[in-house]
Amino acid sequence: MKKENNTISGAVYSTEFGRMCPVCGRATGDCVCRRKNVLPEGDGVVRVSRETKGRRGKTVTLVAGVPLTLDGRAILAKQLKRKCGSGGTIKDDVIELQGDHRDVVTAELKRQGYRVKRV
Q1: Does domain 45-118 have CATH number 3.30.780.10?
Q2: Per-residue pLDDT for 48 more than 90?
């Protein structure tokens, strides 16, 4: 690995810098690429689904296809977590909420003006 000005080529995580941007190779806090402001490609339909695979039987509500930037998705995730009264995170442009909250999430997204489809 080559280390120059807080960059490590090819690394995704560094014990020295933490999470690394796969595009520019810098720590996510020092990321200079515009990956944060890129809208995910999609058809404009927000898909709400439920999943238990790979989670030791725990149910997770997935919200995919939200046409927002990373910052916008973080704000929306916070609103949905508060509305559902549960925890969650954002992984690979998908909002994950702990528990089965498809009805609440669908109603909230429709109220905010999104086209929603339950999958």
Answers
A1: yes
A2: yes
